[in-house]
Design brief:
The chain is of the alpha+beta class and about 140 residues long. The protein has 1 helix and 9 strands. It has 2 domains: about 1-30; about 35-140, Sandwich (Immunoglobulin-like). The strands form 2 sheets. Strands 3, 4, 7, 8 and 9 form a 5-stranded antiparallel beta sheet that branches. The protein has a 4-stranded antiparallel beta sheet with strand order 1-2-6-5, with no helix packed on it. The N and C termini lie far apart (about 85 Å).
Amino acid sequence: MLHLLGFRLAVASRLCLATLGAVVLTAASAASPTPYLRTAGVQRGHVVAVFSLGELAPGHIRVATRPRTLPNGAFVTANVRLDEALRPTRVANGYRTRTRHTLTPGRYYVEVSGIVLGLDCTPLKPCRQDWSNVRRVVIPRP
């Protein structure tokens, strides 16, 4: 009888752990990545982006000629045509920014970054920068 009770307890605890693991994985996959680039478009040669940062501080907007990224999520440096500090304004679904500089006609890829603020960030050990998903924009010929 005790052997049967021990078996039932072991099965119940494994079932409970499996259920808890499934809940955690579902919650993690349902959360959108931060930062998240909602839209990217063009306005008179300027790139305009709408994005969310979550708990991150504004970082940069980068525009590249190819969508290839490094392991940390940033564009490959050789492909970057524009890299500016974010100057976001609050809008209904996050933040909006417009680049200061314009680009020549062509196909480009856009991403934004958010900075993870911490107490141990120094000039020699800067705060981590997280990069968003990538969106494509096309600047038409006049």
